[in-house]
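B., you asked whether I could sanity-check this one before it goes into the benchmark set. Here's the sequence:
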Amino acid sequence: MRRHSKHPYVIEDEITVGVSSEAVMTQILDPTTWPRWQSEIHSISGPPSIQKGDEIRGDARLVGFDVEGVSHALEAGESRFVEEVWVGVRMQVEYQISESDGRTVIRRRLEADLPGGVLGRLLTVVLKRKLRTMQKDVLASLAQASEGS
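And here's what the prediction gave me:
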């Protein structure tokens, strides 16, 4: 994968839920559920169950900008989903799901290529704050959506 930034911004977090890994992966691999647990996404189109190589398109709002986004599924398995996302900036998002003692751990890793240049550095300050908040919100909302499924 080609890197556009010399210093990609990486966030890794996890949350533990009391549902099966299958319930979590059902939410992740069905893009029609994404607007329910990713508040930035307003509309989405794609296959009903994502597989490696699939493309998902949608409209989102990120740091005050309305953007058209596209996601390419790099990996889509029983316990792992990796996508390359373009929403004004390139991001790679990975979900890793594991079970232990009747609980499910959802790990999410986001790597973003943030913009360069003078104005890019200013936007980067705002983007970093938004991406950190978004990471926590996405995990909490995904956990809630999985428990409700």
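One thing to flag: The helical segments are 21-29, 34-37, 117-148. Otherwise nothing jumped out at me.
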